[in-house]
Hints:
The complex is a heterodimer.
Chain A: E1 3-7, H1 11-23, E2 30-34, H2 37-46, E3 50-56, H3 64-74, E4 80-84, H4 89-98, E5 102-105, H5 110-118
Parallel strand pairs in A: 1-2, 1-3, 3-4, 4-5
Helix pairs in contact in A: 1-5, 2-3
Chain B: E1 7-8, H1 12-33, E2 38-48, H2 49-55, E3 60-69, E4 74-80, H3 81-91, H4 96-105, H5 111-134, E5 139-143, H6 154-159, H7 162-166, E6 168-177, E7 184-191, H8 192-199, E8 213-217, E9 237-241, H9 244-253, E10 258-265, H10 271-281, E11 290-294, H11 299-307, E12 311-314, H12 321-332
Parallel strand pairs in B: 8-9, 8-10, 10-11, 11-12
Antiparallel strand pairs in B: 1-2, 2-6, 3-4, 3-5, 4-7, 6-7
Amino acid sequence: MAKILICDDSQVMRMLVKKSLREAGLDGHEVIEASGGIEGEKIATSDPSIAVMLCDVNMPDQDGITTVKNIVSKRQTLPIIMVTTEGGDQKIKEMKQAGAKGVLVKPFEAEDLKNILEGIL
Amino acid sequence: MAEQKSKKVESQKISELVEKSMGILQEVTNKLLGINCELKPMGGMLLDLDSVVNCFKSSYYPLKATFDKGFEGRLFLFLDEKAVITLSSILLGHGPELIKERLKEELIEGLMTDAFSEIGNQLFGGLDRLWSKKYRSDLHLKKDFTPVVPHESEEALKFFSGDDRINTWVTWIAKLKLPFCPETKLIFLFPKNFSEWAFGEEATRIDGKRFGQIIAMSPEGNGERLIPDAFALDGYVVEEIGSPKGLSRLLNTNDRPISMVILNVTSWQGLAKGWTEKLTKNPSLQGIPFVVFYENLDLDEIKEIEKKGVHAEPLPKPSDRIERIQRILEVLSPTTKEVA
């Protein structure tokens, strides 16, 4: 069983990601939630048992790209998947350059989440 | 006479953009919520923002995005209260009974506002991807994280800047069919000059033309202006008449061609029937589109109206002014003639 960190300022979005994890048959994993970039960064860098992080891009306190950059500078090996509506090539390139391992474009289905997490967990 | 503020939008490229945009909005909604929603564009017009906002009789909820880098401006989506309740409730996993209860209570609270913001975020995200891929790669939308409030609230009024009110907007109305919910509308607005920027083409081909006169009559004197000032049709002069004397005076002194006659009735017998008989026989009004907006006529009465070559258009109360204008524009469209 792995620990999955969901970082999103929207409570509804965190609920939706958890629902998708259940639908994808990944509900055996422990889920930890962060309601903003700063909190997400703090958890990701202080809890080494976090196996993967699902991170929103647009967050009011600290955007997802800054959050990823800060985490990667301290913990390079943590796989981070950006969960976003931004699907343009330029934006995806920017997220990957910041250190994101993958990008999940919203809206997504449970199967999409499963596919992206399968190689990691 | 009121300043005219609405024009029919006719550019083919804009119609295509709207069709495609509605397609992506429908796709995002269906995928996000796992439902079958239908979104059908009814046609567009050019309006100022005050006219759009003033037309709502029930509460509408605005969503706003700003264009990033390539184009200076804003984009609005308006969804009515029933649609907001239904969409948010479905996203939160509420069952049909709870959704019906929420619709009855007209209640939007707590997590529903968060859910609606997320829906807005994903709708604009879908438009952003479509437009940058299909039209201009430098076109991007930034979603505004604004509170979920009805259009008439003070917070919503702050939502619109001074420029927004002055600008002319390409305004499209679409019919929205959602599960558990009566049919509602989605209103989609983008700045008129956006079409010039994206396509190098004006939003309308009928700019600058001068049209004739629309005679709007309410013989039963229900007190409501059939076409409120804010909605006077651009290029047309709208004359509201409440008595047969007023009509006779107008026909005798009129120096402007008549483009359309509208009769607003609650029932068919009595005044409405008498007026229709007179008007359809009037030589000055032959060949001119004639529309009867009615509230509750039976099938025989509708057939009787249509036999006289008159369009009968249902308009149940409370009437939706945007829809009324839309229908008027649809009837006017095939017969639109420029006046010298």
